[in-house]
TrEMBL record:
This is Uncharacterized protein. The chain crosses the membrane at residues 12-34, 92-116, 128-149, 169-193. Keywords: Membrane, Transmembrane, Transmembrane helix. Residues 226-247 are annotated as: Disordered. It comes from Mesorhabditis spiculigera.
């Protein structure tokens, strides 16, 4: 499975594919975390937006700019209500699960690169891929639970309008989790494959065979020309050379 002998075998090729899939899954998960959709609540006075990163409040009475606050910022008059904070804390759990999965995916990708020269790193990369996939699906399930809780919550007043906006973040989570598990499966298959055929040698040998055709044709043409030249020289009339005393 190592590349130190300069050969690209089937297990090595499968491990390269698994590493690329793991990097792709980590990138998709990173995009899902930072592009997570917002959920909007209209309580008649403000539009409260709950996202995985920030809490935003937009005034409907004035055309003021959007006010966004981080989770840690606590100032009098701008912190959301208690029920709003419960939803914010639930979304924070989603964020923690997805960030853990993202870091495990990046570590699994690095371990997969080191797996070319270390069996211990190969085992570690498979464990990290499994944990990354599990945390990704856990974050996706929490994602659904938070949106369902928001739709079923009572924010006081019949005029309260709740709208859940998922966007592509949920789909990216599912796609990233599937990519992690697929990379894990390919990595496991690479341990079962025992074909030591050098994949780089096959096209090189074919290229060498193709390059031999012009040489064979040239040798065949030379072989055809030589008998014809010998036949011409055999029937060529002999030239007589005159000696000085014959003149």
């Amino acid at each position: 499975m190592c590349l130190r002998d300069g050969r690209l075998t089937v297990p090595t090729a499968l491990l390269i594919i698994a590493t690329g899939g793991c990097f792709l899954a980590a990138g998709l998960l990173t995009y899902a975390v930072f592009s997570a959709s917002f959920r909007i609540l209209d309580d008649g006075r403000h539009l409260h937006s709950f996202g995985l990163i920030r809490y935003c409040k937009v005034s409907q009475l004035t055309e003021s700019a959007v006010q966004c606050y981080s989770r840690e910022m606590q100032k009098p008059g701008i912190e959301p209500a208690a029920k709003h904070l419960i939803i914010a804390q639930s979304e924070l759990m989603v964020l923690v699960a997805l960030v853990l999965a993202m870091h495990m995916g990046l570590l699994a990708s690095v371990a997969s690169l080191l797996a070319f020269c270390s069996k211990m790193c190969a085992r570690l990369s498979r464990i990290l891929m499994l944990m990354a996939g599990a945390c990704t699906f856990l974050g996706a399930m929490l994602f659904v639970h938070v949106a369902t809780s928001l739709n079923e919550a009572n924010f006081g007043g019949k005029s309260s309008k709740v709208e859940a906006r998922f966007g592509p973040a949920f789909a990216w989570c599912l796609l990233a989790g599937s990519a992690f598990l697929l990379s894990l499966l390919i990595s496991l298959v690479s341990t079962l494959a025992d074909d030591e055929t050098d994949l780089l040698q096959i096209p090189l040998s074919r290229a060498g065979t193709i390059s031999e055709f012009p040489r064979k044709i040239s040798r065949r043409m030379n072989a055809i020309r030589r008998p014809s030249q010998a036949h011409v020289e055999h029937h060529r009339p002999e030239e007589t050379t005159l000696l000085p005393q014959d003149v």
